[in-house]
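User: My collaborator sent over this chain with a note saying "see what the structure looks like." That's all I know about it. Can you take a look?
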Amino acid sequence: MGINYTFSANSKLSFSTGYTTSIGDMMTLLTEPMQVDYRSVRTSSGIIGEQNTWHTSGDWKWQLPMQYFTLSLAASHSEGKQNTLTSQSVSGIDVSSTALLRDSRSRSTSFSIAATKNIPTLFAKLGADGSYSFGSGEQAISSSMGGGQEGAIVIDTRTNSYALHGNATITPVKTFPRFYLVLLRQPIAPMEPDGMSRVYQM
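Assistant: Without extra context I'll predict from the sequence alone. Here is the result:
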């Protein structure tokens, strides 16, 4: 579901939200270890995984056409829930992943800003943008519980990232000489045997 609202000719707001559900495939029913690549092994939980995600985002744009300026602000947030939790164990350079029958949750939030400015007198365009995001989730790590039993320790994971970027585009202008071609055309009358030329009109 989305909503677009125009405040004025220079300002516009967009908002959207949605809820999705995805179901795993038949590969999740295979409980035997599967070689994913030359250094990774994956073991499924034996049940079909289900993931529910809620996502919402908003965007605001402000433009000044006469000043050749544009500003955009955006924000988004999502939360997810699934009925399995991935557990990993590392042995040397080999990684083994196992899907555990345990509910897990994740969430993420991001913000971004972008601005552009055209300078026609300099044939230049300046731009800058930045973004910041953070999120959290759950991860399981295989561990030995003693007595030859294997267990998993569930830990909370957190992520933070940011990015800044700027650019300038300058179009070089080179003056080329102009050449004019003037064609002069004058009708030529055929010569008669007596040496006189006459113009015949039809």
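A starting point for your reply to your collaborator: The chain is about 0% helix and 65% strand.
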